[in-house]
Amino acid sequence: MSKAGRLEEGDASKVPVPVGSNKGVSVMDLVLRLVGIAGTLGAAIAMGTNEQTLPFFTRFVRFNAQYDDFTSFRLFVFVNAIVCAYFVLTIPLSIVHIMRSVARGSRILLIILDTIMLALLTSGASAAASIVYLAHNGNSSTNWLPVCQQYGDFCQGASGSLIGSFGAIVVLILVILLGAIALSRHPKRVHL
Amino acid sequence: MSKAGRLEEGDASKVPVPVGSNKGVSVMDLVLRLVGIAGTLGAAIAMGTNEQTLPFFTRFVRFNAQYDDFTSFRLFVFVNAIVCAYFVLTIPLSIVHIMRSVARGSRILLIILDTIMLALLTSGASAAASIVYLAHNGNSSTNWLPVCQQYGDFCQGASGSLIGSFGAIVVLILVILLGAIALSRHPKRVHL
């Protein structure tokens, strides 16, 4: 124990980590989560309200495109709503981390949940992106025609809503990174 | 301060962490990475060799589907190859972690890289999955017909190769989790 104490003190003199050094990290974590809320909420609303009806129609068919014609877009809205709710729910925990730099279990929990949310959000955003790409470019070997010439506004709306979602993905990666740094940083320094 | 010190000793006596307790975690990390190599390699090869030529053809057109007709499938192969190479490259580091439980900087680095690879792999796998879904079901509002009736083998090959990739996603999530646990666990205990 005493040797450990000396070693620890030796470390401390070499690398002076000020007490409460996780505060900055935690504040940045909070800010990033707020950005993530904005991104995912914006993406979900933009995609969820995305609809276009063409100005011409036949007696039988009315040309109309809306997000829930596409399973991937439905998944996109669903996933963005979930991640947005998740961000809102973790705000209190993030505030607790600002005040209590020592918290360890809750940080691990957050890293795990963040990672799962990252996988979830990336899957939704990429599935939607691949459909948007197909709508723009079509595919000749399967004879899927590009539909963005007809549904221009719809395509633009869908493309735009991807931005918020990919922004939130970057936020999640940064938040995991900050969590790992904070975890590695509090080797009983605060207890000295 | 002294109160914190007392708290800490209380914690230590309550939860006895044996020296080198990260060894099991590191071994599991290594095993998971090997599973990840198998999954991503299998997925990349299965998709990369996926091709089907229909037995009928006209004088001008030969009906043929192969993976690189689809941008999402190309991305899928590319991403799986990258993640496979990444897994191979991190094997030595993982072995080092088994021997040196204390390693901290390299663990943080691994968590960050794992997270980026997770986002990359998930995006590739989901983009491919959304195309596979479309090939199976089609989409009526854009008049994209399901092509799996014609290209049955091609569709089956593409669906199958998704499995390896999604397995590797689970592996990455577990590996990040193990990394976070290992990081949080070595509070100078090994110096005793």
TrEMBL record, chains A, B:
Membrane topology: Multi-pass membrane protein
GO CC term, one of those recorded: plasma membrane
Transmembrane segments annotated in the record for this chain: 30-49, 75-96, 108-135, 162-183
Tree of life domain: Eukaryota
InterPro entries: CASP/CASPL, CASP_dom, CASPL
Entry keyword set: Cell membrane, Membrane, Transmembrane, Transmembrane helix
Residues of the Casparian strip membrane protein domain: 23-170
Pfam families: CASP_dom
Primary localisation category: membrane
Family: Belongs to the Casparian strip membrane proteins (CASP) family.
Cited NCBIfam families: A_tha_TIGR01569
Subunit annotation: Homodimer and heterodimers.
Protein name (database record): CASP-like protein
